[in-house]
Amino acid sequence: MDPEFPPFLMTLLAVWLFILGLCVGSFLNVVVARVPHGQSIVKPRSRCPKCGHTLSWYENIPLLSWLALRGRCRGCKSPISIRYPLVELLTGLLFLACLRRFDWSWELVAALVLITLLVPLTFIDLEHWILPFSLTVPGIIAGVALAVPRGMEALRDAAIGAAVGFLAFRLMEYLGWKLFRKEALGGGDKFLVAMLGAFLTWKALLGILFLSSLQGAVVGVLLIALTGRAGPRTEVPESEEPEKEAPEPELTMTWEFTKPGLPLWRRLVLVPWCLLFQPIPDEPKDEAGEEIDWVPGTTNIPFGPWLALAGLEILLLAPWLSRVLPPQLALLLGGLP
Ligand SMILES: [Zn+2]
């Protein structure tokens, strides 16, 4: 931005961006709470999940309301998760970090949109072990579209980033199954990588793979040593007896297009669809043909948060990383700027 701008005005704009981040974070709390259950993020107004008390505007102010209410619902006094103010503060601080890195530029806009996608994806994956397509797919489109104002070269790099990221993780998904007969990656991970590739271009993909696996492995091993499991537990519905362990469902893998009795044209249509999108392995089914809910084992980690963290590190710290890392490693991390 114009260097002639008086410093106090720049500070004022930074404060405004921080407050904007808090408000976006407040909205992201709604996304985290509702999107995994397929609920609307617009209606109804926010209410207490325990007693249904509808929040008035002054109970909905980011950060301040939680502090003023001392983390309790005004209606029923049941505790409000610390996640709410945390997500708000985190989003506000990440917005400021983006401003510091990119100043007032087109890159800043793209970075803020990326933050707005990564924060809810991280918290949803931590709680539900899913990365909803309703966030990742629009995210891929947004990443490519936001490269347009920066010229043809940026647009090409973003499109290649999305495609290569998706295909590389799709291949790893398949090879993981071939080699270990286990579901090595969640099906949603490749869409998140494609999204990161769109925003950060193909140059960042190796670095994302390297940083996410390294940090995920180190923290996962530490968590197993300390708590006995690498990832968070999923909520077990109250009706289910926790002692009665369900037998591990048999995992199989049959390409849809190889099934007997299909007309040739359907087979041909199915081939590209299967290669790109069919779940690997097949969704486990019980005798009645209903899908069995997957329960994470003790050594499973949700990979989405680690991918998101690696993406954030490259987004915000790339110039610093390229200074402190040995040049060969910095080059491996995608020719950091
Ligand atoms: Zn309540």
From TrEMBL:
<keyword id="KW-0812">Transmembrane</keyword>
<comment type="function">
    <text>Plays an essential role in type IV pili and type II pseudopili formation by proteolytically removing the leader sequence from substrate proteins and subsequently monomethylating the alpha-amino group of the newly exposed N-terminal phenylalanine.</text>
</comment>
<dbReference type="InterPro" id="IPR014032">
    <property type="entry name" value="Peptidase_A24A_bac"/>
</dbReference>
<keyword id="KW-0511">Multifunctional enzyme</keyword>
<keyword id="KW-0378">Hydrolase</keyword>
<feature type="transmembrane region" description="Helical">
    <location>
        <begin position="129"/>
        <end position="148"/>
    </location>
</feature>
<feature type="transmembrane region" description="Helical">
    <location>
        <begin position="104"/>
        <end position="123"/>
    </location>
</feature>
<keyword id="KW-1003">Cell membrane</keyword>
<dbReference type="Pfam" id="PF06750">
    <property type="entry name" value="A24_N_bact"/>
</dbReference>
<keyword id="KW-0472">Membrane</keyword>
<keyword id="KW-0489">Methyltransferase</keyword>
<protein>
    <recommendedName>
        <fullName>Prepilin leader peptidase/N-methyltransferase</fullName>
        <ecNumber>2.1.1.-</ecNumber>
        <ecNumber>3.4.23.43</ecNumber>
    </recommendedName>
</protein>
<keyword id="KW-0645">Protease</keyword>
<dbReference type="InterPro" id="IPR050882">
    <property type="entry name" value="Prepilin_peptidase/N-MTase"/>
</dbReference>
<feature type="domain" description="Prepilin type IV endopeptidase peptidase">
    <location>
        <begin position="112"/>
        <end position="221"/>
    </location>
</feature>
<dbReference type="InterPro" id="IPR010627">
    <property type="entry name" value="Prepilin_pept_A24_N"/>
</dbReference>
<dbReference type="InterPro" id="IPR000045">
    <property type="entry name" value="Prepilin_IV_endopep_pep"/>
</dbReference>
<keyword id="KW-1133">Transmembrane helix</keyword>
<feature type="transmembrane region" description="Helical">
    <location>
        <begin position="200"/>
        <end position="226"/>
    </location>
</feature>
<comment type="similarity">
    <text>Belongs to the peptidase A24 family.</text>
</comment>
<feature type="domain" description="Prepilin peptidase A24 N-terminal">
    <location>
        <begin position="19"/>
        <end position="101"/>
    </location>
</feature>
<dbReference type="Pfam" id="PF01478">
    <property type="entry name" value="Peptidase_A24"/>
</dbReference>
<feature type="transmembrane region" description="Helical">
    <location>
        <begin position="160"/>
        <end position="180"/>
    </location>
</feature>
<keyword id="KW-0997">Cell inner membrane</keyword>
<feature type="transmembrane region" description="Helical">
    <location>
        <begin position="12"/>
        <end position="35"/>
    </location>
</feature>
<keyword id="KW-0808">Transferase</keyword>
